[in-house]
Amino acid sequence: MVYLEMARDLIWKLMYLHRTGPQRLLNDYMQGEYFVLNCLQRRGCAILPGQISKEMNVTSARIAQTLNNLEKKQLITRQIDPQDRRKILVSLTENGRQEAEHSRQAILELFAAILSHLDEEDAREYVRLTGKLAEGIASMKGDEQHD
Fold first, then answer.
1. Which of 6, 35, 38, 66 sits between 20 and 30 A of 27, alpha carbons compared?
2. Is a pLDDT exceeding 80 seen at residue 27?
3. Regarding predicted confidence, which is higher, 25 or 129?
4. How many CA atoms within 13 Å lie on the side-chain side of 129?
5. Nearest to 51 by CA among 65, 40, 61, 38
6. What is the DSSP string of 109-144?
């Protein structure tokens, strides 16, 4: 079957990229502290820890630990929700906004440099196909979210 051969080839190429490419930076950006900072920046307002937990698909205990670290670094604040004193809202500090913007800019520049190895048409096609794969995988999982 041709898909099995292509899958084998793709796996080897992805393994090579993992060893030599920017996977670590991308992984850092897509999880942990940087994910939380960028999530808060994208939302543009204070949100509940549970919303972050749901978006990251991690436990509330993991989010609490991450928020503790970010608070110690003075990148976020946690305040009681004035409409419901049982809830805590998380928001970025000015330092947190700067850090989120810095990490977003760094990852954009990195991926622009990666895409520059292709001509513009191939780069657009790569982005299009990656989106198509992401949508297909999300639908396999029943995931409604595919940005």
1. 6
2. no
3. 129
4. 6
5. 40
6. HHHHHHHTTS-HHHHHHHHHHHHHHHHHHHHHHT--
pLDDT tens readout for residues 76-122: 999 999 999 999 999 999 999 999 999 899 889 988 998 999 999 99
Residue 44 has which token pair?
């543009």
Q: Is 91 helix (H, G, I), strand (E, B) or coil?
A: strand
Contact 52, 63 (CB under 8 A): yes
Element counts in the chain: helices (H) and strands (E)? 7, 2
For CA atoms 37, 100, 75, 31, the dihedral sign is positive
The percentage of residues in the chain with a pLDDT greater than 70, rounded to a whole number, is: 95
pLDDT of residue 15: 87
Q: Compute the 3-state secondary structure of the chain and give helix, strand, coil in percent, each to the nearest 5.
A: 70, 10, 20
